[in-house]
Amino acid sequence: MKSVRNAKSANYLQINHVIKKLLSEEGVILRPSAEAYEEFEEAKKYLDKRPSEGYFIWVRQQISHPLSTCITISSPNIHQNINNLIIVDPGINVEIYSICNAAKPVLCGVHEGYTKIILKENSSLKLRHFHKWGVSDEVKTVTEVMLEKGASMLSFYKCISPLKKLSVSSTAFLEKNSSANFEVSILAKDEEAELYESLFLNGDNSNGIIKLRMISDRNAKITSHSKIVANGAGIGHIECMGLLLSNNSIISSIPEIFTKNKEATLTHEASIGKISEDEINYLRSRGLTEEEAISLIVTGFLGETLLH
Amino acid sequence: MLKIKNLSVKVDEKFILKKVNMNIKDGEIHALLGPNASGKSTLAYTIMGFQKYKVSEGEIWFRDINITNLSIEERVKLGIAMAFQSPPAIKNVKLSLLLKRIAKEKSIFNMKEFSLISNLLEREINVGFSGGEKKLSEIIQIISLKPTFVILDEIDSGLDVINLTKIVKIIQDKLINNGVSILAITHRGDILQFLDPDVAHVMLEGEIICSSKDWRKPWETILRCGYEKCKECEERELLTN
Lengths: 308, 241
Hints:
The complex is a heterodimer of chains A (308) and B (241).
Chain A: E1 12-15, E2 18-22, E3 28-32, H1 33-39, H2 41-46, E4 55-59, E5 67-73, E6 79-88, E7 93-102, E8 110-119, E9 124-132, E10 138-147, E11 152-159, E12 165-174, E13 179-188, E14 192-201, E15 207-216, E16 221-230, E17 235-244, E18 250-259, E19 265-273, H3 277-284, H4 290-301
Parallel strand pairs in A: 1-5, 4-6, 5-7, 6-8, 7-9, 8-10, 9-11, 10-12, 11-13, 12-14, 13-15, 14-16, 15-17, 16-18, 17-19
Antiparallel strand pairs in A: 1-2, 3-4
Chain B: E1 2-11, E2 14-24, E3 29-33, H1 40-48, E4 54-62, E5 65-66, H2 72-78, E6 80-83, E7 90-94, H3 95-102, E8 124-125, H4 131-144, E9 149-153, H5 161-175, E10 181-186, H6 192-195, E11 199-204, E12 207-212, H7 216-225
Parallel strand pairs in B: 3-10, 3-11, 6-9, 9-10
Antiparallel strand pairs in B: 1-2, 1-4, 4-5, 7-8, 11-12
Helix pairs in contact in B: 4-5
């Protein structure tokens, strides 16, 4: 499998407002979203207007490796307004790594990203979305996912580098037998972060999970609104976990479950607390310093099992 | 090696340990016996340097260094290690990762005992481990630190005879045979006959009320009369150094 974790190997690379790389491959249509709007009816159908920047990915055949995109801000005071569209054709399984970042720590950039994802019948998408910004950047990312019958999506969003302001919003509409699993992990420091995650279980036997991992450090405020609405006989679960690393930080977690269908089952659990002293002592008794112990626990808390 | 002098310890302003004295020499094995909540684990955590356990009086010396005010990791660096009775779960952190971080020598990964935890390596630390698996994981972690003094906190609790024998064999081969000093804390005493300690101490209500060079003497009394009668025992002895 080819490496997908750096810009060099990206299928789509945009720096500031300029597309630096656009690498289509067999079975995958890749265009600037503005071009796609003119070229494909399918794109026009899902895009409200002609985008100014962003990508269009249409996966038409099964591919054996992940796709990757990278959108960077590298100059001061850039304001990106990205419109992406991803369509996965019926029965196709695809994995996408998406990286959005700032090349330097203080660029005062604004990144607004709107991504629409259409998963046709029985298709699946694993989307790993990583953000790495500077302390003066403001970021707003909005994702809307339509899951047709039998489609499934696993979305993992992670932002652990402190920035000025972060707003992450994801909404998924699920038809019959489809499933969506949204995981969001953020670490905020001197930052204001807002998370909005919503799943609409419209079809019978649809199921969705929202899993939030939030860490709030010095002068940070995190507010999360997570909602599952069951219109069909689906199953949904919300799990919100928060860790406060300092006293002048705030986490506010508001889970909401709403059902109109008596056959639906919705549950939620939420907890906010500090790092367990027992865990820190345990790791320190293995020779780690307090900082190393906290770092290990925090990284584990944010969700990805630490590999070798 | 380890000298505890007149140690009194408070937790949340309440005295738990009262004027405890103990002298563990190089290569010696000491057992600390006592009923539940008698202060045995408090002594272990205080030796390790956990902040919650406040030393109000006395000192702890390790290899001629006063460690009373040292941090946990500084004590570990000096050669002190502890196997926990109930180790906490560390979610999403694999045991193999921790072992790679803490192991003093890479040869740990080649020793035959390591194969006993091969099924645990790719699992999150202590998440869903059985009682026996936790004890094995604790012992292997301890060995990887190459300590000179080890506290075994209730290492025999919740183990069947087969698992206890397995654990004791590792302790014998990798710790005792290498001259490591041991303080074995035990409530039920299952491990005594395997370790054959040089000294056995009995702790009641935070005080050591008996220290004997023949562990069978206090243990047989405890078996016969229970811990509560220890205070009344006329044969109890205290070692002065």
